[in-house]
Amino acid sequence: MNPIMINLFGIEIKWYSLLILIGIILGMLLVIKESKKFNIAKETIFDLCFYAVILGILGARLYYVLFNISYYKYNISEIFAIWNGGLAIHGGIITGAITIILYCKKKNLNFIKIFDIIVPALILAQAIGRWGNFFNSEAHGFATTYTFLKDLYIPEFIIKGMNIGGVYYLPTFYIESLWCLLGFIVLLIIRRFKYIKIGTITSIYVIWYSIGRFFIEAWRTDSLMLGGFKVAQIVSIALIMGAIIYLIYISRKGKYEVLYNDINKGRVI
Fold it and tell me: Which end of the chain has fewer CB within 10 Å, C or N?
């Protein structure tokens, strides 16, 4: 696949960057729309998303670089070339979450509820952003055959794009994108439940994405490693356990306590 969408007067605009931008814009629009229900100012959400996105991208890149330090210590100039790929979503989630917590404390907002507002948009952005890996011919799985991919009902144009150097590869980016898109639909449905508690949507997002990522990571051939283990799988297990514990914790509260759809609970009181 050609990673360059268009070349304008010597300036290359790459699919990877464009798709991330589309995901961010759509995500912000969804967050702004949902936050209106809780009388949270659009300007507040815009500022929050702006800082979380910028620091999240930096965190995603730093995370990726740190786990590939053996390469980047000899290629310093490439550290900042994020348009060539190399963003680790877990690094972005960690730095983005820290940014949101700090901002919410400053603005007297309930950061857990803000997480609930944001995560459906986040998983949609992830579904869109994964397609950047397709155009960069990266984040794919093991070598396979045309027949195997065809039997999985994978679209023909994806199969052709996964023919890299004469070898077909499993399009794990496509599988993860579909998993995230399905997760987006699930979260939207859950969000409409009348008695859903604050923190439930975020917990389900963490569990949903982490389960999918754990298994998809097993098929990938370019995983970040820690010793002999895949970092994403370690982090996924830790996140699943943490989210389950939190769900058990909030389930002990009364039926009418800390409800997500209570419009009066957007701020810390």
Answer: C
